Amino acid sequence: MKPRLNEYVKPWVQGIGAYIPGKTIEGYIKLASNENSYGPPPRVMDAIERAKSAINIYPYKDDEVREKTAEYCRVKPENIILGNGSDELFDLILKTFRGPCLGINPSFSGYKIAVNILGEDYLDINLNDDFTFSSEEFIKKSKKANILILCSPNNPTGTVMAEDQVKEILDENKITIVDEAYFEFYGKTAVPLLKTYDNLIVLRTFAKAFALAGLRIGYGIANSDIVDLLYKVKPPFNVNSLAQEAAITALGDLAYMKSTTDSIVKDRELLFEKLKQKFRTFRSYANFVLADTTPMSSREFYDRLLEKGIIVRNLGKFRGFEGEYCRISVGTTDENRTFIRALEEF
Ligand SMILES: Cc1ncc(COP(=O)(O)O)c(C=O)c1O
Q1: Can you tell me the distance from the alpha carbon of 191 to that of 285, in angstroms, rounded to the nearest whole number?
Q2: In sequence order, what are the residues at sequence separation of 6 or more whose Cβ sits closer than 8 angstroms to the Cβ of residue 130?
Q3: Could you tell me the distance, in angstroms and rounded to a whole number, from the CA of residue 205 to the centre of ligand 1?
Q4: What is the DSSP string of 43-55?
Q5: Tens of pLDDT along 221-248?
Q6: How does residue 20 score in pLDDT terms, banded at 50, 70 and 90?
Q7: What is the band of 182 on the pLDDT scale with cuts at 50, 70, 90?
């Protein structure tokens, strides 16, 4: 007998639109999910090879990853919590603290989905027309929220928030998340503000600059009281042993990460210039560039590249904004050249 789903489902789950990931087709150049096409350093592959002999035991290197991550972030291990991707950390924060939540629009679509899954309200404030951020309206609306969600550099716009704006928002004394998934492509961080603000949680990931998206590992940096609370709701073995090993090894070869992020940043500027010759394009501080594809539809832009074996992210329209948008991740220099050649034929 079939269960009567409508009777049992949590009412707020019915209306949720599931997250749609970027397309992956074997043999195509994928510039759709802000991954790092260069991959991790070869020594990470060796470490995974070695670690596979211990997959019969539960992961046990949480402390070592926390120590190495803390060193990288110049904080103490007690300020670090690891997650199965930074998206799990976002979930842990939402399980621990009460909503409503306030974010910006447009921003990472995963936030609203995660907030709504837990039955909380997600409010947002539009960015300016050029996707820069003004804190005034945000601060006004923050009175109605308990958790504030900032993303800098912001996905999908690539724009950033100034430190003074982040401070003004922290002064509201709400739980404030600053998602720094793309930190390494920008270089500025809110981490030093942890000395002054106990309400700050910085989220980072190994999925972008460190090229470990498939292993699912991210981390949060916060005051140890917040970290202790998050530990109460964290599943005990949320980061698997191969991901732990890969993160330790990748943190031991920062020069490799730096060299790939340097190339990506250099090529980002080239992609920006090339796109700007044809479309309204936004200066980005992450590993992707956003373009308004008008007068083409974003679907047409996407399809014409797909015909040439390149997958970008078709984002369509943004609520409250003119134009139609595609986001192009910066790939390897060869991939970027292929993209530019295709673009020049438009
Ligand atoms: C802003 C932002 N935060 C978080 C994530 C998710 O990161 P992770 O793979 O660590 O869950 C993404 C992924 O694209 C992102 O763009």
Answers
A1: 18
A2: 282
A3: 7
A4: HHHHHHHHHGGGT
A5: 999 999 999 999 999 999 999 999 999 9
A6: confident
A7: very high
* Residue 143 backbone class (left: φ over 0; alpha: ψ -120 to 50; beta: rest): alpha
Q: With contact defined as beta carbons under 8 Å apart, do 137 and 125 qualify?
A: yes
With a 6 Å cutoff on the Cβ, whether 205 touches ligand 1 is yes
What is the total residue count of the chain? 346
For residue 234, give the 3-state DSSP assignment.
coil
Cα(142) to ligand 1 centroid in Å equals 23
* pLDDT tens digits, one per residue of 50-79: 999 999 999 999 999 999 999 999 999 999
Q: Position of tokens 């989220």?
A: 203
The answer, yes or no, to whether any atom of ligand 1 lies below 6 A from the CB of 86, is: yes
Say if CB 139 and CB 133 are below 8 A apart: no
pLDDT at 16 over 90: no
* Domains in the chain: ranges and CATH: 5-39+255-344 (3.90.1150.10), 42-252 (3.40.640.10)
Nearest partner of 147 among 203, 87, 112, 103, judged by Cα: 103
pLDDT at 181: 98
